[in-house]
């Protein structure tokens, strides 16, 4: 009985994946978002479907804050204290971006990606989970720029 249920679920998953892929192929914004490292079909379709007008956000930082990928501020008396990420906003999009950032960081450790130098320098100073969230923040900002400007992602390798 459990085997039959698993088989039925597998069929439903394949059907949903095909529908998602078809929607991705029809949606220009989703295709542009998929050019960003760490953003696959699931993340790009989720971003394109969730953010109808990216120009509602003034900047990529505001978009990252909307997703809860910026540090929480506990400032008082002129002292600026930054804490953990705020986790405000859409948790599903935040999780997708963090998973994608984890993939980028794993590839960056081999040194074959354009952002490998930046990631490796951060990994020397910070724990890997902190670097992962920083990469997710950077990816969110890039995604906002891609959506707002209507362009594809172009890597700018730092020398």
Key features?
159 residues; 2 strands
Write a structural description.
With 159 residues, the chain is mainly alpha-helical. The chain is built from 7 helices and 2 strands. It has helices spanning 2-26, 28-33, 41-50, 60-67, 91-108, 116-125, 128-149; strands at 71-73, 82-85. The chain has a two-stranded antiparallel ribbon with strand order 1-2. α4 crosses α7. The relative contact order is 0.15.
The main β sheet shows up as: 2 strands, antiparallel
Q: Helices and strands: which structural class?
A: mainly alpha
Mean of the pLDDT scores? 86
What is the helix tally? 7
Strand order of the largest sheet: 1-2
Order of helices and strands: HHHHEEHHH
The shape is globular
Q: Let me know the number of strands.
A: 2
Task: Classify the helix fraction into a percent range.
Answer: 55-70%
Give me the oligomer status.
single chain
Fraction in beta strands: under 5%
Distance between the termini: 58 Å
Low-confidence runs of at least 5 consecutive residues:
none
User: Compute the gyration radius: what is it?
Assistant: 18 Å
Quick gist of this model?
The chain is mostly helical and 159 residues long. Helices cover 62% and strands 4% of the residues.
